[in-house]
Amino acid sequence: MDDSAVWAAEGEEKPFWETKKLSEMSPAEWDSLCDGCGQCCLNKIEDEDTGKIFLTRLSCSLLDLGSCRCKDYENRFALMPDCLSVDIKAVKKLTWLPESCAYRRVNEGRGLAWWHPLVSGDPETVHQAGVSVRGWARSEKGVPEHEIARYIIGEAG
Fold first, then answer.
1. How many CB atoms lie within 10 A of CB 140?
2. In the 8-state DSSP scheme, what is residue 146?
3. Were both Cys, which of 58, 78, 133, 156 would link to 137 (CB 3.0–4.6 Å)?
4. Which residues, in sequence order, are bridge partners of residue 69?
5. Do 91 and 21 contact (CB within 8 A), yes or no?
6. Domain total of the chain
7. Which segments of 11-142 does DSSP mark as H helices, in order?
8. Which SS3 state, helix, strand or coil, does residue 139 take?
9. Per-block mean pLDDT, blocks of 10 residues, the chain (157 long)
10. Alpha carbon of 54 to those of 34, 45, 57, 154: distances in Å?
11. Which residues of the chain form beta strands (DSSP E)?
12. CA-based Rg of the chain, rounded to a whole angstrom?
């Protein structure tokens, strides 16, 4: 039995992300697809003149930069009004979701990467593979708004 079969529902040979569309997943399955990279929690800046979106290395202040998980996931929308829900509509619409994003990969029929915790069985592999923001992102906390542009790392999407 391969490692991914461990995540299959009882009596199934394939794991849920290979047999279900995103729209068919339970809330628990949906949440488990998040690989913990923290990339969607990086701040973006939109150029008002061109509409281009730029990615910064500044993260939401709720992102734990060690685990790359939200410090208060349950209350994130109340605490951070700019927080976007990564739901099925967002997955289909947001061009800045990274190519590595599990939601994007599953939606595009590419499956999960070897380093995804559901495949590897280890939440550290996303960091070991260099996919997460661990070690290079910085919290937005304390960065004045007029200095945010200094932290642009490229165009998103």
1. 20
2. G
3. 133
4. 64
5. no
6. 1
7. 16-19, 27-33, 76-79, 88-93, 102-107, 117-120, 125-128
8. strand
9. 48 86 95 95 93 94 96 95 92 91 95 96 96 97 94 90
10. 22, 5, 10, 6
11. 42-46, 53-59, 63-64, 69-70, 138-139, 152-155
12. 16
CA atoms of 11 and 3, how far apart (whole Å): 15
Q: For residue 19, what are its two tokens?
A: 């047999």
C-beta separation of 139 from 58 below 8 A: yes
Query: What is the structure's pLDDT at 10?
Result: 61
Q: Give dist(CA 136, CA 86) in Å, integer.
A: 23
pTM of the model: 0.85
Domain that holds residue 124: 3-155
Buried b (16+ CB within 10 A) or exposed e, 62-90: bbbbeebebeeeeebeeebeeeeebeeee
Amino acid identity at 51 = G
Token representation of residue 63: 């992102």
Q: Count how many residues are written for the chain.
A: 157
